[in-house]
Amino acid sequence: MRGALAAAGPPAGRASGSVSGECRLARAAVTRLAEPGDELMGRWLAELGPEEVWRAVRADDRLPGASRDRWAGLRLRARRADPSRDLAAIAAAGGRFLCPGDREWPSQLDDLGPARPVGLWVRGPCSLRFVALRSVAVVGSRACTDYGAHVAAEFAGALAERGWAVVSGAAYGVDGAAHRGALAVGGPTVAVLACGVDVGYPAAHRELLDRIAGGGLLVAELPPGEHPTRARFVQRNRVIAALTRGTVVVEAARRSGSLVTARHASRLGRHLMAVPGPVTSSLSVGAHRLIREAAVLVSDVAEIIELVGDMGELPPEEASPAVPRELLAPEAGQVLEALPAWGALGVEEIARRACTGEAAALARLRELSCLGFVERVGERWQLPCPAGRHAGGGDQAGSAGV
């Protein structure tokens, strides 16, 4: 029972791990100070620790590398930062604040180096670490076509049915279709946001976001109440790429934001995949360029899992439609191959062509006749006649050797 509870993640409002309360409070404060992806802040945190960074900003003890203007901006933000209030707000929303060192922290985010998130504000019942272990990002154009929405939903649903979590950005278009596809089959899905997890952006996706939070996860680097900006949208893409084993770009125009996610995935050594679309569609230009340069073309979920799955976790081989003659025994198949497309042959010639005895050839011909593969014309054998063709009107060259 305890193992099952652990797998389900920590209770709402609590983050499990060995991170001290002071460290958690300081990191929560720093999420108010720095923008996502701030590498200078990341280096300060790595070298000095979050408690010292938070103390230095409040005490106006300027840290190395910060210009006067930059330091002044951090000081202004620090005046309004109240990490205790933010932690209380996320708990009231049924969420929690994760820090590096928590058991729920996904260690793959460490691949981002100094750009690693300071911490993550999370809403939802799942463990982010466990869900991210088997996850795929499905991203694409906001103004996608019906084709793009269909592919995103189908891929996401099939991935979820096979035990893979679908990660995206909760935007319009491909992102929303991917989340809905996973939810439709009861699978987990993770939305990485460019705002606070309590903001509900975009507004038309508030119901979708609530559904994701109910069975999956909402994840953000920004504290409660923060709203998105263009730069924050760009930076959240690096988290999507780092969290997952691979990124699938369904549709992307030449300057699509999903291409940013693709570039991050490639730099991080994650699998990069793209779905082909019509060459006449401007929304496939970016995806096609990825395929030419770095991405693997994928056309179904089996091909995705073949790339991102563990060794030995290959999809079942697709059974191609069986051609009736392929089900024949080898000896019968050889005799059938000995018959020409046009004209009839005697048993002796058929046996010679099939490299078998006359008795064996005759036995196989009788079997093939019962199955409808051949027909007898007097003392000769031929393939069934097409409509309108006379039995004796076969290829003269085919019967000349009899």
From TrEMBL:
InterPro entries cross-referenced by the UniProt entry: DprA, DrpA_SLOG
Record's compositionally biased regions (Low complexity): 1-18
Region (Disordered): 1-20
Source superkingdom: Bacteria
A Pfam short name: DNA_processg_A
Record domain Smf/DprA SLOG: where: 97-307
Family: Belongs to the DprA/Smf family.
Protein name as it appears in the record: DNA-processing protein DprA
Organism: Streptomyces millisiae
Lineage: Bacteria, Bacillati, Actinomycetota, Actinomycetes, Kitasatosporales
